[in-house]
Amino acid sequence: MLHAQPAEATATDEKLMGQVAQGDRAAYAQLVSRHVNRAYALARRIGSRPAEAEEVAQEAFLRVWTHATQWSEDKGRFSAWLSRIVTNLCIDRMRRSEHAAVAWEEAAEAVADPSVDLESDLHRRQLAQQVAAEVARLPDRQRMALSLCHYGGVSNADAADILGVSVGAVEALLVRARRTLAQRLQSLNRL
């Protein structure tokens, strides 16, 4: 026998935000549950260390709760709005910090596949570390555009809105970032 899911479980993010704006804590908890991992992952990709990324995700959802009445569907999807909040919090932290050291190596390491032999696994990890290190060296805007579009699954239009630039500017940032990464990685492989 099939059991129907509660209406809240199938509600869109946008509908839940309308409920959050009215003070519905259950709707808020559902949004947090749906998006906290994505917010954390985006903060890590932009350049936050694990503890900082947790703080950014928490602060982002605090802002979702406290500014829920300011959001409207006219401004775009909830996920794009949340990505904008996370990105802005990361930018603020980078501006405040004396150094924007990035722990990309930790974020880039994938779980080892037991079917891969040790040598292949070591090579894959080294490559992931090289890519992570080179991504971390990109200029902030290029790294953020790449993080949003490639790792965060955000559209170019949403990334443009989040970064406060045109779609063409985002596309240019992505082209430059990818070109720079390809050149750097190619020169590393020649060594």
UniProtKB/TrEMBL annotation:
NCBIfam families hit by this protein: sigma70-ECF
Keyword field contains Cytoplasm: no
Keyword line: DNA-binding, Sigma factor, Transcription, Transcription regulation
GO biological process: DNA-templated transcription initiation
Protein name per Swiss-Prot or TrEMBL: RNA polymerase sigma factor
Sequence ranges assigned to domain RNA polymerase sigma-70 region in this UniProt record: 31-97
Pfam families according to UniProt: Sigma70_r2, Sigma70_r4_2
Ranges of residues in domain RNA polymerase sigma factor 70 region 4 type: 130-181
Database matches in PANTHER family: RNA POLYMERASE ECF-TYPE SIGMA FACTO, RNA POLYMERASE SIGMA FACTOR HI_1459-RELATED
One Gene Ontology MF term: sigma factor activity
Coiled coil: none
Gene3D superfamilies to which the protein is assigned, alphabetical: 1.10.1740.10, Winged helix-like DNA-binding domain superfamily/Winged helix DNA-binding domain (1.10.10.10)
Assigned protein family: Belongs to the sigma-70 factor family. ECF subfamily.
Record keyword Transcription regulation present: yes
